[in-house]
Specification:
alpha/beta; about 450 residues; Gyrase A, domain 2; five-stranded mixed sheet; binds zinc ion
Length: about 450
Protein backbone atom coordinates (compact mmCIF):
# COMPACT_ATOMS: atom_id res chain seq x y z
CA UNK A 1 0.00 0.00 0.00
CA UNK A 2 2.72 2.45 0.95
CA UNK A 3 4.68 1.54 -2.17
CA UNK A 4 1.59 2.25 -4.26
CA UNK A 5 1.02 5.53 -2.48
CA UNK A 6 4.62 6.53 -3.16
CA UNK A 7 4.26 5.48 -6.79
CA UNK A 8 1.05 7.48 -7.04
CA UNK A 9 2.68 10.55 -5.48
CA UNK A 10 5.75 10.38 -7.71
CA UNK A 11 3.57 10.05 -10.80
CA UNK A 12 1.33 12.99 -9.95
CA UNK A 13 3.33 15.40 -12.07
CA UNK A 14 3.05 13.06 -15.03
CA UNK A 15 -0.72 12.63 -14.71
CA UNK A 16 -2.71 14.13 -17.55
CA UNK A 17 -4.34 17.45 -16.70
CA UNK A 18 -7.87 16.92 -15.43
CA UNK A 19 -9.29 19.06 -18.22
CA UNK A 20 -8.01 16.63 -20.85
CA UNK A 21 -9.80 13.66 -19.31
CA UNK A 22 -13.34 12.87 -20.46
CA UNK A 23 -14.12 11.74 -16.88
CA UNK A 24 -12.36 12.17 -13.54
CA UNK A 25 -14.13 9.18 -11.96
CA UNK A 26 -15.38 5.87 -13.33
CA UNK A 27 -17.70 3.77 -11.17
CA UNK A 28 -18.09 0.19 -12.41
CA UNK A 29 -21.11 -1.36 -10.71
CA UNK A 30 -21.27 -5.12 -11.21
CA UNK A 31 -24.67 -6.69 -10.58
CA UNK A 32 -23.50 -10.25 -9.89
CA UNK A 33 -25.50 -12.77 -11.90
CA UNK A 34 -27.91 -10.26 -13.46
CA UNK A 35 -29.31 -11.30 -16.83
CA UNK A 36 -29.85 -8.44 -19.30
CA UNK A 37 -33.32 -9.69 -20.31
CA UNK A 38 -34.44 -9.56 -16.67
CA UNK A 39 -32.83 -6.14 -16.16
CA UNK A 40 -34.80 -4.79 -19.13
CA UNK A 41 -38.01 -6.30 -17.74
CA UNK A 42 -37.42 -5.04 -14.17
CA UNK A 43 -38.79 -1.81 -12.74
CA UNK A 44 -35.29 -0.33 -12.61
CA UNK A 45 -35.74 3.40 -13.23
CA UNK A 46 -32.20 4.40 -12.25
CA UNK A 47 -30.36 2.01 -14.56
CA UNK A 48 -32.91 2.49 -17.34
CA UNK A 49 -32.36 6.26 -17.13
CA UNK A 50 -28.57 5.78 -17.18
CA UNK A 51 -28.97 3.60 -20.27
CA UNK A 52 -31.24 6.12 -22.00
CA UNK A 53 -28.73 8.91 -21.31
CA UNK A 54 -25.75 6.77 -22.28
CA UNK A 55 -24.77 3.80 -24.43
CA UNK A 56 -26.16 0.26 -24.10
CA UNK A 57 -24.63 -2.84 -25.70
CA UNK A 58 -27.40 -5.33 -26.40
CA UNK A 59 -25.19 -8.33 -27.19
CA UNK A 60 -22.52 -8.08 -24.50
CA UNK A 61 -20.92 -11.28 -23.24
CA UNK A 62 -18.76 -12.34 -20.34
CA UNK A 63 -15.77 -14.66 -20.69
CA UNK A 64 -15.86 -18.46 -20.53
CA UNK A 65 -16.38 -20.22 -18.15
CA UNK A 66 -19.16 -17.81 -17.11
CA UNK A 67 -18.13 -17.58 -13.50
CA UNK A 68 -17.52 -14.84 -10.94
CA UNK A 69 -13.86 -15.58 -10.21
CA UNK A 70 -12.93 -15.69 -13.89
CA UNK A 71 -14.91 -12.58 -14.86
CA UNK A 72 -13.57 -10.47 -12.02
CA UNK A 73 -10.06 -10.97 -13.39
CA UNK A 74 -11.14 -10.42 -17.01
CA UNK A 75 -12.73 -7.10 -16.01
CA UNK A 76 -9.65 -5.27 -14.65
CA UNK A 77 -7.16 -6.91 -17.02
CA UNK A 78 -9.30 -6.51 -20.15
CA UNK A 79 -8.18 -10.00 -21.08
CA UNK A 80 -9.54 -13.50 -21.52
CA UNK A 81 -8.90 -16.32 -19.03
CA UNK A 82 -6.63 -17.90 -21.64
CA UNK A 83 -4.42 -14.82 -21.19
CA UNK A 84 -4.76 -13.96 -17.49
CA UNK A 85 -4.67 -17.56 -16.28
CA UNK A 86 -7.59 -17.66 -13.81
CA UNK A 87 -9.35 -20.32 -15.82
CA UNK A 88 -11.94 -21.66 -13.40
CA UNK A 89 -13.17 -22.10 -9.91
CA UNK A 90 -11.92 -23.34 -6.59
CA UNK A 91 -9.68 -26.10 -7.83
CA UNK A 92 -7.09 -25.39 -10.48
CA UNK A 93 -4.10 -27.64 -10.99
CA UNK A 94 -0.75 -26.87 -12.53
CA UNK A 95 1.03 -29.07 -15.07
CA UNK A 96 2.20 -31.45 -12.32
CA UNK A 97 -1.34 -31.72 -10.86
CA UNK A 98 -0.42 -29.60 -7.86
CA UNK A 99 -3.46 -27.69 -6.50
CA UNK A 100 -3.19 -23.92 -6.92
CA UNK A 101 -4.79 -21.73 -4.27
CA UNK A 102 -7.02 -19.42 -6.33
CA UNK A 103 -7.99 -16.97 -3.65
CA UNK A 104 -10.58 -18.51 -1.34
CA UNK A 105 -8.26 -18.14 1.63
CA UNK A 106 -5.89 -15.39 0.52
CA UNK A 107 -6.93 -13.58 -2.66
CA UNK A 108 -4.01 -11.17 -2.42
CA UNK A 109 -1.48 -14.04 -2.49
CA UNK A 110 -3.33 -15.56 -5.46
CA UNK A 111 -2.72 -12.37 -7.46
CA UNK A 112 0.67 -13.90 -8.31
CA UNK A 113 -1.25 -16.28 -10.62
CA UNK A 114 -2.64 -13.41 -12.72
CA UNK A 115 -0.53 -13.14 -15.87
CA UNK A 116 -1.76 -9.75 -17.12
CA UNK A 117 -1.59 -6.21 -15.65
CA UNK A 118 -4.77 -4.46 -14.42
CA UNK A 119 -6.28 -1.05 -15.01
CA UNK A 120 -5.65 -0.41 -11.31
CA UNK A 121 -1.92 -0.60 -12.02
CA UNK A 122 -2.33 1.68 -15.02
CA UNK A 123 -4.27 4.18 -12.90
CA UNK A 124 -1.70 4.05 -10.08
CA UNK A 125 1.15 4.67 -12.53
CA UNK A 126 -0.64 7.86 -13.60
CA UNK A 127 -1.19 9.02 -10.01
CA UNK A 128 -4.87 8.05 -9.90
CA UNK A 129 -6.50 6.12 -7.05
CA UNK A 130 -8.90 3.18 -7.01
CA UNK A 131 -11.13 0.94 -4.90
CA UNK A 132 -12.01 -2.73 -5.52
CA UNK A 133 -14.97 -3.68 -3.32
CA UNK A 134 -15.41 -7.45 -3.45
CA UNK A 135 -18.60 -9.15 -2.24
CA UNK A 136 -17.20 -12.67 -2.18
CA UNK A 137 -13.60 -11.87 -1.32
CA UNK A 138 -11.98 -13.94 -4.03
CA UNK A 139 -12.72 -11.24 -6.65
CA UNK A 140 -9.66 -9.53 -5.16
CA UNK A 141 -7.48 -11.96 -7.13
CA UNK A 142 -8.00 -9.32 -9.84
CA UNK A 143 -7.26 -6.35 -7.58
CA UNK A 144 -3.53 -6.06 -8.36
CA UNK A 145 -2.61 -2.39 -7.95
CA UNK A 146 -5.90 -1.23 -6.40
CA UNK A 147 -5.25 1.55 -3.87
CA UNK A 148 -7.93 0.35 -1.43
CA UNK A 149 -9.75 -2.97 -1.28
CA UNK A 150 -12.75 -4.28 0.64
CA UNK A 151 -13.06 -8.02 1.20
CA UNK A 152 -16.76 -8.54 1.84
CA UNK A 153 -16.19 -12.07 3.07
CA UNK A 154 -14.44 -10.48 6.06
CA UNK A 155 -16.21 -7.13 6.43
CA UNK A 156 -19.89 -8.01 5.92
CA UNK A 157 -22.32 -9.18 8.59
CA UNK A 158 -21.39 -12.79 9.44
CA UNK A 159 -24.96 -14.00 9.96
CA UNK A 160 -26.21 -12.58 6.66
CA UNK A 161 -23.12 -13.85 4.82
CA UNK A 162 -23.53 -17.38 6.22
CA UNK A 163 -27.16 -17.41 5.01
CA UNK A 164 -26.41 -16.11 1.50
CA UNK A 165 -27.68 -19.31 -0.20
CA UNK A 166 -30.30 -20.25 2.42
CA UNK A 167 -33.90 -20.46 1.16
CA UNK A 168 -35.19 -19.75 4.68
CA UNK A 169 -33.83 -18.08 7.81
CA UNK A 170 -35.63 -18.90 11.07
CA UNK A 171 -38.40 -20.38 8.93
CA UNK A 172 -38.83 -17.15 6.95
CA UNK A 173 -38.31 -16.80 3.21
CA UNK A 174 -38.64 -13.02 3.53
CA UNK A 175 -35.88 -12.84 6.13
CA UNK A 176 -33.64 -14.97 3.88
CA UNK A 177 -34.29 -12.56 1.00
CA UNK A 178 -33.64 -9.54 3.22
CA UNK A 179 -30.29 -10.96 4.36
CA UNK A 180 -29.23 -11.47 0.73
CA UNK A 181 -30.14 -7.91 -0.19
CA UNK A 182 -28.61 -6.44 2.94
CA UNK A 183 -25.16 -7.76 1.94
CA UNK A 184 -25.15 -5.47 -1.12
CA UNK A 185 -26.54 -2.54 0.89
CA UNK A 186 -23.73 -2.94 3.44
CA UNK A 187 -20.99 -3.36 0.83
CA UNK A 188 -22.16 -0.16 -0.86
CA UNK A 189 -22.14 1.67 2.49
CA UNK A 190 -18.59 0.47 3.21
CA UNK A 191 -17.52 1.58 -0.26
CA UNK A 192 -19.15 5.00 0.09
CA UNK A 193 -17.29 5.58 3.37
CA UNK A 194 -14.02 5.24 1.42
CA UNK A 195 -15.39 7.28 -1.50
CA UNK A 196 -16.32 10.18 0.79
CA UNK A 197 -12.83 10.16 2.29
CA UNK A 198 -10.74 9.74 -0.87
CA UNK A 199 -12.88 10.59 -3.94
CA UNK A 200 -11.10 7.84 -5.93
CA UNK A 201 -10.85 7.83 -9.72
CA UNK A 202 -11.74 4.17 -10.37
CA UNK A 203 -14.22 2.15 -8.33
CA UNK A 204 -15.30 -1.44 -8.92
CA UNK A 205 -18.06 -2.77 -6.66
CA UNK A 206 -19.72 -6.18 -6.87
CA UNK A 207 -23.32 -6.20 -5.66
CA UNK A 208 -23.76 -9.93 -5.08
CA UNK A 209 -27.44 -10.16 -4.16
CA UNK A 210 -28.88 -11.16 -7.56
CA UNK A 211 -26.44 -14.10 -7.71
CA UNK A 212 -27.36 -15.35 -4.24
CA UNK A 213 -31.07 -15.05 -4.97
CA UNK A 214 -30.89 -16.78 -8.37
CA UNK A 215 -28.86 -19.69 -6.97
CA UNK A 216 -31.33 -20.08 -4.11
CA UNK A 217 -34.68 -19.81 -5.90
CA UNK A 218 -33.78 -19.85 -9.62
CA UNK A 219 -33.80 -16.96 -12.09
CA UNK A 220 -37.51 -17.42 -12.84
CA UNK A 221 -38.49 -16.80 -9.19
CA UNK A 222 -40.10 -13.43 -8.37
CA UNK A 223 -37.38 -12.80 -5.77
CA UNK A 224 -34.80 -12.48 -8.58
CA UNK A 225 -36.62 -9.65 -10.35
CA UNK A 226 -37.32 -8.04 -6.97
CA UNK A 227 -33.62 -8.13 -6.14
CA UNK A 228 -32.60 -6.59 -9.46
CA UNK A 229 -35.01 -3.77 -8.60
CA UNK A 230 -33.45 -3.53 -5.13
CA UNK A 231 -29.92 -3.13 -6.51
CA UNK A 232 -31.26 -0.53 -8.97
CA UNK A 233 -32.21 1.46 -5.85
CA UNK A 234 -28.66 1.08 -4.58
CA UNK A 235 -27.32 2.53 -7.82
CA UNK A 236 -29.71 5.45 -7.20
CA UNK A 237 -28.26 5.91 -3.71
CA UNK A 238 -24.74 5.84 -5.17
CA UNK A 239 -25.63 8.54 -7.72
CA UNK A 240 -27.21 10.70 -5.02
CA UNK A 241 -24.11 10.45 -2.83
CA UNK A 242 -21.80 11.38 -5.72
CA UNK A 243 -24.07 14.39 -6.28
CA UNK A 244 -23.68 15.44 -2.64
CA UNK A 245 -19.91 15.06 -2.96
CA UNK A 246 -19.94 17.31 -6.02
CA UNK A 247 -18.33 14.75 -8.35
CA UNK A 248 -21.38 13.38 -10.19
CA UNK A 249 -20.92 15.63 -13.23
CA UNK A 250 -17.37 14.34 -13.72
CA UNK A 251 -18.29 10.67 -13.22
CA UNK A 252 -18.86 7.95 -15.82
CA UNK A 253 -20.80 4.82 -14.85
CA UNK A 254 -20.44 1.29 -16.17
CA UNK A 255 -23.27 -1.07 -15.23
CA UNK A 256 -22.58 -4.72 -16.01
CA UNK A 257 -22.43 -8.24 -14.59
CA UNK A 258 -20.01 -11.11 -14.38
CA UNK A 259 -22.38 -13.74 -15.84
CA UNK A 260 -26.01 -14.63 -16.48
CA UNK A 261 -28.03 -17.57 -15.15
CA UNK A 262 -29.72 -20.81 -16.19
CA UNK A 263 -32.74 -22.48 -14.70
CA UNK A 264 -31.58 -26.04 -13.92
CA UNK A 265 -32.94 -29.23 -12.37
CA UNK A 266 -31.44 -29.21 -8.85
CA UNK A 267 -32.33 -32.83 -8.16
CA UNK A 268 -29.87 -34.26 -10.70
CA UNK A 269 -26.40 -33.65 -9.33
CA UNK A 270 -23.32 -34.72 -11.26
CA UNK A 271 -20.02 -35.20 -9.43
CA UNK A 272 -21.16 -33.23 -6.39
CA UNK A 273 -18.51 -31.27 -4.55
CA UNK A 274 -18.42 -29.23 -1.37
CA UNK A 275 -21.13 -29.94 1.18
CA UNK A 276 -22.69 -32.65 -0.97
CA UNK A 277 -19.36 -34.46 -1.12
CA UNK A 278 -19.23 -34.72 2.64
CA UNK A 279 -22.61 -36.43 2.52
CA UNK A 280 -21.47 -39.04 0.03
CA UNK A 281 -19.56 -42.16 0.94
CA UNK A 282 -16.21 -40.93 -0.30
CA UNK A 283 -14.96 -37.40 -0.81
CA UNK A 284 -12.74 -38.63 -3.64
CA UNK A 285 -15.75 -39.80 -5.56
CA UNK A 286 -16.85 -36.18 -5.73
CA UNK A 287 -14.01 -35.53 -8.14
CA UNK A 288 -14.61 -38.62 -10.24
CA UNK A 289 -16.84 -39.43 -13.19
CA UNK A 290 -18.08 -43.03 -13.19
CA UNK A 291 -17.82 -43.61 -16.97
CA UNK A 292 -14.16 -42.56 -16.92
CA UNK A 293 -13.38 -44.41 -13.69
CA UNK A 294 -14.89 -47.62 -15.09
CA UNK A 295 -12.35 -47.53 -17.93
CA UNK A 296 -9.46 -46.75 -15.62
CA UNK A 297 -8.92 -43.25 -17.02
CA UNK A 298 -7.22 -41.34 -14.22
CA UNK A 299 -8.88 -37.95 -13.96
CA UNK A 300 -9.92 -35.12 -11.66
CA UNK A 301 -13.14 -33.10 -11.89
CA UNK A 302 -12.83 -29.46 -10.90
CA UNK A 303 -15.62 -27.30 -9.61
CA UNK A 304 -15.38 -24.49 -12.14
CA UNK A 305 -19.01 -23.50 -11.76
CA UNK A 306 -22.39 -24.95 -11.03
CA UNK A 307 -23.13 -25.78 -14.65
CA UNK A 308 -19.72 -26.51 -16.13
CA UNK A 309 -16.84 -28.69 -15.02
CA UNK A 310 -13.19 -28.94 -15.83
CA UNK A 311 -11.69 -32.41 -16.20
CA UNK A 312 -7.97 -33.05 -15.92
CA UNK A 313 -6.85 -36.27 -17.60
CA UNK A 314 -3.53 -37.71 -16.42
CA UNK A 315 -2.68 -39.59 -19.63
CA UNK A 316 -3.05 -37.09 -22.48
CA UNK A 317 -3.22 -39.96 -24.97
CA UNK A 318 -6.62 -40.85 -23.46
CA UNK A 319 -8.25 -37.40 -23.83
CA UNK A 320 -10.07 -38.40 -27.02
CA UNK A 321 -11.28 -41.63 -25.42
CA UNK A 322 -12.62 -39.66 -22.44
CA UNK A 323 -14.49 -37.31 -24.76
CA UNK A 324 -16.07 -40.28 -26.53
CA UNK A 325 -17.23 -41.78 -23.22
CA UNK A 326 -18.67 -38.52 -21.92
CA UNK A 327 -20.52 -37.98 -25.20
CA UNK A 328 -22.82 -40.88 -24.22
CA UNK A 329 -23.89 -39.20 -20.97
CA UNK A 330 -27.32 -37.51 -21.21
CA UNK A 331 -26.26 -34.58 -19.00
CA UNK A 332 -23.42 -33.53 -21.30
CA UNK A 333 -24.34 -30.56 -23.47
CA UNK A 334 -20.97 -29.49 -24.88
CA UNK A 335 -17.36 -30.58 -24.56
CA UNK A 336 -14.39 -28.34 -25.23
CA UNK A 337 -10.84 -29.60 -25.19
CA UNK A 338 -7.23 -28.87 -26.01
CA UNK A 339 -6.01 -29.98 -28.39
CA UNK A 340 -9.36 -30.63 -30.04
CA UNK A 341 -9.83 -34.29 -30.94
CA UNK A 342 -12.41 -34.99 -33.65
CA UNK A 343 -15.43 -35.30 -31.40
CA UNK A 344 -14.96 -32.19 -29.22
CA UNK A 345 -17.27 -29.31 -30.07
CA UNK A 346 -14.57 -26.66 -30.32
CA UNK A 347 -11.14 -26.14 -28.84
CA UNK A 348 -10.72 -24.35 -25.52
CA UNK A 349 -8.35 -21.88 -27.18
CA UNK A 350 -11.05 -20.86 -29.66
CA UNK A 351 -13.09 -19.84 -26.59
CA UNK A 352 -10.03 -17.86 -25.35
CA UNK A 353 -10.00 -19.99 -22.21
CA UNK A 354 -6.95 -22.23 -22.63
CA UNK A 355 -4.00 -21.33 -20.40
CA UNK A 356 -1.15 -23.79 -21.03
CA UNK A 357 -0.01 -25.74 -18.00
CA UNK A 358 -3.02 -24.78 -15.93
CA UNK A 359 -6.28 -25.36 -17.83
CA UNK A 360 -8.17 -28.65 -17.55
CA UNK A 361 -7.86 -30.91 -20.59
CA UNK A 362 -11.63 -30.82 -21.02
CA UNK A 363 -14.36 -28.39 -20.12
CA UNK A 364 -17.82 -29.94 -20.03
CA UNK A 365 -21.00 -27.85 -20.05
CA UNK A 366 -23.89 -29.61 -18.33
CA UNK A 367 -27.34 -29.74 -19.84
CA UNK A 368 -29.90 -27.69 -17.89
CA UNK A 369 -31.47 -30.87 -16.53
CA UNK A 370 -28.48 -31.29 -14.23
CA UNK A 371 -26.28 -29.36 -11.82
CA UNK A 372 -22.66 -29.93 -10.92
CA UNK A 373 -22.01 -29.02 -7.31
CA UNK A 374 -24.96 -28.05 -5.25
CA UNK A 375 -28.71 -28.76 -5.36
CA UNK A 376 -29.62 -25.22 -6.44
CA UNK A 377 -32.29 -24.35 -9.07
CA UNK A 378 -30.15 -21.59 -10.57
CA UNK A 379 -26.66 -22.17 -11.97
CA UNK A 380 -24.19 -20.67 -14.45
CA UNK A 381 -20.82 -21.43 -15.93
CA UNK A 382 -21.68 -22.73 -19.41
CA UNK A 383 -21.26 -21.18 -22.84
CA UNK A 384 -25.06 -20.99 -23.32
CA UNK A 385 -26.36 -17.47 -24.07
CA UNK A 386 -28.36 -17.44 -20.81
CA UNK A 387 -25.07 -17.76 -18.89
CA UNK A 388 -22.84 -15.70 -21.21
CA UNK A 389 -24.99 -12.64 -21.91
CA UNK A 390 -24.48 -9.69 -19.55
CA UNK A 391 -25.86 -6.17 -19.31
CA UNK A 392 -23.42 -3.48 -20.43
CA UNK A 393 -24.33 0.19 -20.00
CA UNK A 394 -21.98 3.18 -20.11
CA UNK A 395 -23.34 6.52 -18.95
CA UNK A 396 -22.23 9.93 -17.71
CA UNK A 397 -19.10 11.99 -18.28
CA UNK A 398 -17.44 11.31 -21.62
CA UNK A 399 -20.07 8.80 -22.79
CA UNK A 400 -22.11 9.08 -26.01
CA UNK A 401 -25.77 9.88 -25.22
CA UNK A 402 -28.65 7.75 -26.41
CA UNK A 403 -26.54 5.26 -28.34
CA UNK A 404 -27.13 1.53 -28.77
CA UNK A 405 -24.38 -0.91 -29.64
CA UNK A 406 -24.36 -4.59 -30.59
CA UNK A 407 -21.64 -7.05 -29.71
CA UNK A 408 -19.22 -6.28 -26.90
CA UNK A 409 -17.19 -8.29 -24.42
CA UNK A 410 -16.37 -7.87 -20.77
CA UNK A 411 -12.72 -7.63 -21.89
CA UNK A 412 -13.56 -4.37 -23.74
CA UNK A 413 -14.48 -2.60 -20.50
CA UNK A 414 -10.91 -2.02 -19.20
CA UNK A 415 -9.53 -0.33 -22.33
CA UNK A 416 -12.70 1.76 -22.61
CA UNK A 417 -12.45 2.83 -18.97
CA UNK A 418 -8.83 3.91 -19.50
CA UNK A 419 -9.91 6.01 -22.49
CA UNK A 420 -12.63 7.66 -20.38
CA UNK A 421 -9.95 8.55 -17.80
CA UNK A 422 -7.64 9.88 -20.50
CA UNK A 423 -5.00 7.26 -19.75
CA UNK A 424 -2.77 5.95 -22.55
CA UNK A 425 -2.95 2.19 -21.80
CA UNK A 426 0.82 1.78 -21.61
CA UNK A 427 0.60 -0.69 -18.68
CA UNK A 428 -2.52 -2.67 -19.62
CA UNK A 429 -2.14 -5.46 -22.20
CA UNK A 430 -5.79 -6.05 -23.08
CA UNK A 431 -7.30 -8.56 -25.47
CA UNK A 432 -10.34 -6.28 -25.72
CA UNK A 433 -10.62 -3.00 -27.59
CA UNK A 434 -11.94 0.48 -26.83
CA UNK A 435 -15.70 0.61 -27.46
CA UNK A 436 -15.51 3.75 -29.59
CA UNK A 437 -19.27 3.93 -30.13
CA UNK A 438 -19.72 4.49 -26.36
CA UNK A 439 -17.52 7.61 -26.37
CA UNK A 440 -18.77 11.18 -26.75
CA UNK A 441 -17.03 13.00 -29.58
ZN1 LIG B 1 -23.00 -17.71 -8.85
Amino acid sequence: MSLLAALAASALLAAPAAATRPADHVFIVMLDGTRPDFLRRARAPVIHALAAAGTTFLQAETTYPSQTRVAFVSLPTGSYPGSHGIVGGDEIKDASWKDLETGNNDPIAAQALVARPTFFEEAAAAGLTSIYAAMKGYELVGAKGATWTINGKQTLDKTAYAARYAPEVSGSVDLALWYKQRLSRDLLDQTLALVREHKPNVVVINLGSPDYVAHTWGPEAPQYLHTIEFVDGLVGDLKAELGRLGILERTAFVISADHGFSDVDPTRMIAPAGDAARQSASADRAHTLDPLAARGIEHFVTNTGGASMGVYIRDKARVAEAVGLLRREPWVESIYCEPAPAHCDVSLSSLHSYFPGRSPDLMVDLDDDATLNFPQPGQHGTHRPSDMRIPLVFSGAGVARGAVGGKASLVDVAPTVLRLLGLPATVLRPDGHVLEEALAH
